[in-house]
Amino acid sequence: MAHADFARPQRTAVLIGCMALSALTGAVEAQAPAQPTTIPSAISSGSATDAPLVPAVAKSKLRSSEDGWLDLGGFLDEAYGFVPLVIPITEPAIGYGAGAGLAFIDKPQREAKDGFGRPNITAIGGLATENGTWGLMAADIRQWLDDHLQTQVALACASVNLDFGGIGEDRALSDNPVGYNLEPLGGMVGAKYRLGDSPFWTGLSYTFATTEVGFDAPDGSPELPEFQRQSRIGGLTPSLTYDSRDNIFTPTRGTYVEATTGLFSRALGGDNEFQRVGVTAIQYLPLHPKLTLGLRGDATFSFGDAPFYMRPSIGLRGAPAMRYQGEETAQIEAELRWQFWKRFSVIGFAGCGAAWNDFERFDKTLGIVTGGSGFRYELAHKYGLHMGMDVAFGPDGPAVYVQFGSAWMRP
User: Fold this and answer.
1) Which of 160, 262, 312, 386 might form a disulfide with 329, Cβ 3.0–4.6 angstroms?
2) Helix H or strand E encompassing 75
3) What percent of the chain has pLDDT over 90?
């Protein structure tokens, strides 16, 4: 599918849904039987009477039996347990809006060691924002063969209104970006296979999408990139992954490293011949039982005749999606999370990124610095799932992100 950071689940997720579930908790518990139960009791005369017993208390699916706080673990353990998502969207690139969907998450395996026992996840949803952006999407991530095979399927269609600020540093477009619209329709199918019982995975995926492109400027304007009104991409992406995280939602320890090489070609259904090479490294370090340090670094390189919307972009909190693009990008970010009281955490984060080009006429480097803070609530203890909100600051001003799990979540 067309590269669009705004669609990543880790960029937006639920707080309003949590509030609705909290209200639902009271409703579920209010429906529990309030009448005392009775049983026959023999007495010396041989007659029977009804002796009241202590009322049986129904176990709540939405509250923890350990601390009484709102917890979705019991509900997710059900055969059709899901998280209903009502998503406020505040992504600077597409404006204010909302999304809604359902995420079905299987029960994690008991006593699974780090890097193993991942749950199956199926999600469907849609979004709309004030600038006319809308999208529909569905995805399924499933584990097979005793946690040795993972399959991934995703489908999406959207109409996205963004601003083009140039490829690499372009002072004219940085100050006066040109609006454009992308309408991608496509999907991805892939699989990863675990090497023995190690944390290493080898994978292969196929991506196909058609994209309609339109700019808010006359054709031939000097500030516009070369583009086709309609283009197709088709490509295979082999990958090698190392994953020892203790869970996929909000890890407290472990390492995630992935290297990918996207090979896009006419022979694979596309219009262009190009490649994308990327590497991502994430490390979680437990500094204290309640204090976790996270470090993330990644770099992406593009080669060949890639459509402008498939060029890499800086994806930090505080940077509008696809606003800072280059033929190559690199970024680092650090995050410190302190679970200071019961289920509540506060976090602080900071990062920097750069985008640059190889061509002589574009041989300029664009760099940005971002940072911010936020909070989390531990919504499902046994799943390691925390949710909350971040406020980030960057060169384009403040931005708010609602987070489902980690901001760097990887399945």
Assistant:
1) 312
2) helix 73-76
3) 56
